[in-house]
Design a protein that fits this description.
Layout: H1 8-18, H2 59-66, H3 85-98, H4 138-147
Helix pairs in contact: 1-3
Length: 197
Amino acid sequence: MANLASNKWYLWYLREVANGHLELPDYEENEDGSVKIYYGELFCRVPDCSKAQKKYTATNNLRTHLESHEDIELQEGNNGGRVAQKVVDEAVKWYKGLFSGIEPQAGGERSISVDSSAGQSASGLPPLPVKKDGSVHVTNMRKKVVEFGRKVPCDSCANRNDCCKDIDKCDHFVHFDCGEIHPTLAPSQPTTEEGTA
């Protein structure tokens, strides 16, 4: 999973499923009737599974769990070793598809509720720098990003002026505990609070 370890959409997938903000879609089926498992998946997507928010340590451990479900057919064959870039690209496309993965909407800045106390949050990440009005403190965020050894602008932002302004576009938001702000879910993805599929 080294190819996915720094992908912002994959990191958002891991964070948002674990904390209950993202409900995953049901499995699609391959041509042979087996369920399609994307490279790097660590959460069960079987409807009503009691372990849906349990993060497995590896995709093969998830596969072992899936074998415990009736009516789930897994694809036979080698499940370890290196994977082709095409497989990684397909997985990244799926992870990105869980979120809007779109360019920022007009007025990209949003009001955010974050505990701005010093240090790290319960997530182990530093809190997102915010202004008194709750909006992102872009200047302080950029300073922190540079302290982390990252560059501004990130790979997804066109220039420095665009960087650190929109969670749906900028790569750097994954380095902070963003409190109540989350990447926009894809239109077909319900939030767990809405409770609809």
